[in-house]
Amino acid sequence: MIKRYLLLICLAVFVVFSLGGCATETKTLTLNVYNWGEYISDGSEDSLDVNAEFEAYCRDELGLDVLVNYTTYASNEDMYNKLKSGSATYDVVIPSEYMIEKMIAEDMLSPLDFSNIPNYQYIDDTFKNLFYDPENTYSVPYTCGMVGIIYNSEMVDEEDLGSWDLLWNEKYKGQILQFNNPRDAFGTAIYWAGDSVNSTDEAVWHKAAENLKTQKPLIQSYVMDEIFNKMKNGSAAIAPYYAGDYMTMYDSNDLLGFYYPEEGTNVFVDAMCVPSCTKNKELAECYINFMLEKDIAIANAEYIGYASPHKLVREDEEYIAYMQDWHEDVMEILYAEDMDIPTEYFESLAPETLSLQNSLWETLKIENAVEPWIYITAGIIVGALLLLFLFNFLLKKYRNNY
User: Fold this and answer.
1) Radius of gyration of the chain from its Cα atoms, rounded to whole angstroms
2) What is the pTM of this model?
């Protein structure tokens, strides 16, 4: 309670200075939040609009006029590039562990004042002191989970399930989706080969690139958020994706199944951070703390469908009952209870390895986009040459006759 009062006092002082000491002028504070798509309880489908709730909390409890400017990104790399370019300023971002590690190393994140985040006490110890933020200085876990394979049970034969092999099965050509970001896409190929996704061995990455190239003719498209509609409406049959998002898709199509590949898979944590470019650090920390309020954290966990690192969420009987109504095996899927397969976190890659990964990825994507046009262009040129040859032949024959 004392910490709560200290936070209120701190924010009151902050707003006074923000307003330049003018008590008669009301100034709106804009909090720029940058998050993954489909990744917060937003008021749709009778859910709680947590951003609106935060604005109301600021207005009613803190006396602040706050507007949450909420925008989304499709991948860690998109978020990183946007921040690195300096083209936009954000106050709260929610990267994955390997990107947090990279951003800390590049001084892109601001150390948090945890006296403004007392609800951090509810984060399970399992998610503290992890490799990407060993002293718990820059991040507060938001969600966690693992990557598996989603499949349509009416379109995929049961005997083909269980392995990453499914993503390379020619039987399903044109019905397979793949991640449209290099780390996750390479992850599928590397796990399939039984190697480490954090390897510095160039041979591992070249082998994975060859596997992705072999897979490419089987792929319908490379996707991120587009996967939701494709799997919901049955226009694709197979996709690697995050367990939490499977729950959202299953809610619209109960023909969808899910499994963790036997060779092993990625385990991840997405965490709330404050970029070093923030203009509203104290307000950003207040927002993070608000996201850890029990009812807010439960609302997010229920809406997103991801596992929560929040102890009060995981232990809440109403939350468990709600999720089990969604899918009878939900707790085993989301929290991987009694699962016995290898798992590995993505770590920030060394510059040389990252450069190699990105180069191999760009080559894969360029070949994917350009090759059909090469054949079309070549066909047009050959056709034009044949027409020119025929025209000259006929013209010469005409002249000889006359």
Assistant:
1) 26
2) 0.81
pLDDT at 375: 46
- CA atoms of 195 and 213, how far apart (whole Å): 18
- The separation between CA 251 and the C-alpha centre of its own chain, rounded to angstroms, equals 20
SS3 43: coil
CA distance 123 to 116: 15
- pLDDT for position 340: 85
Which pLDDT does position 253 carry in this prediction?
Answer: 96
Tokens 């004042």 belong to which residue? Answer: 113
**Structural domain total, the chain:** 2
Specify the pLDDT at position 386.
72
Q: Which DSSP state fits 349?
A: P
Segments of the chain scoring below 50 in pLDDT: 1-24, 368, 370-375
Cα 160 from Cα 261, distance rounded (Å): 11
Integer Cα distance of 197 and 207 in angstroms:
12
Residue 32's pLDDT is what?
98
The alpha carbon dihedral of 75, 78, 82, 85 has a sign of positive
Burial label for 398, CB within 10 Å (0-12, 13-18, 19+), is exposed
CB-based burial of residue 395 (10 Å sphere; 0-12 exposed, 13-18 middle, 19+ buried)? exposed
pLDDT given for residue 199 in this prediction? 97
* Cα–Cα distance measured from residue 98 to residue 69, given in angstroms and rounded to the nearest whole number: 26
Examine the domain organization and report whether 132 and 33 are in the same domain.
yes
**pLDDT recorded at residue 336:** 84
How far apart CA 148 and CA 264 sit, in angstroms, is 9
Q: Residue 330: inside a domain, yes or no? A: no
Strands (E), 42-164: 65-73, 92-93, 140-152
- Please spell the DSSP secondary structure of 212-254, one letter per residue: HHHHGGGEEEEESTTHHHHHHTTS--EEEEEHHHHHHHHHH-T
| Closest by Cα among 178, 164, 159, 261 to 217 | 178
* Planar angle of CA 16, 91, 280, nearest 5 degrees: 10
Say which CATH number the domain at 75 has: 3.40.190.10
How far apart are alpha carbons 398 and 304 in whole angstroms?
A: 75
Are 24 and 78 part of one and the same domain?
yes
Residue with tokens 């039984």: 194
